[in-house]
Amino acid sequence: MADDEIHRSSTFAPVNIAVIKYWGKRDTALNLPTNSSLSVTLSQDDLRTHTTASCSLSFAKDELTLNGEQQDISGARTQACLRELRGLRRKVEAKDDGSPKLSGMMLKIASENNFPTAAGLASSAAGFAALVRAIADLYALPSTPAELSRIARQGSGSACRSLFGGYAAWEMGKEKDGSDSMAYE
Hints:
Elements: E1 7-14, E2 16-20, E3 25-27, E4 32-33, E5 37-41, E6 48-56, E7 63-66, E8 69-71, H1 76-95, E9 106-113, H2 123-138, H3 145-155, E10 167-170, E11 183-184
Parallel strand pairs: 7-9
Antiparallel strand pairs: 1-6, 2-5, 3-4, 5-10, 6-9, 7-8, 10-11
Helix pairs in contact: 1-2, 1-3, 2-3
């Protein structure tokens, strides 16, 4: 594999609007809600985030841009998502010696919203859902949307519901480690 080879994947994620909201968190570090919630996903024709995730040996550090502006990627929530996704990729690499070692490469993530960011339209939900899905696709992870929702939830609680169309339920779960706090269509 050439050092300058770039691996890339792109995806879209929709905005969702809560019908039954979650009211507080039982664990802020894991982003676990005190109650389950229900949302409706809006049409991607109108409101969506487009995210492209790339990795390469030639990248010096992880980077994230949103609407063309460099973002701080060092936050705990973003790092939790990246850590989980890289961990899953390492498992894929351990099972298949021939698979590219993508988990050790730095990421460049570029996201664009087609609606105003931070205007009350759940941009973080669509953003983290798109980030998680784009990296999961880049890493060729054998994960269902429900499994990925557990990771996206760590970035933004509502993001777990933006991995689905139509109505999506986020089950609060009962496990202390949050392993059963996932969304379903």
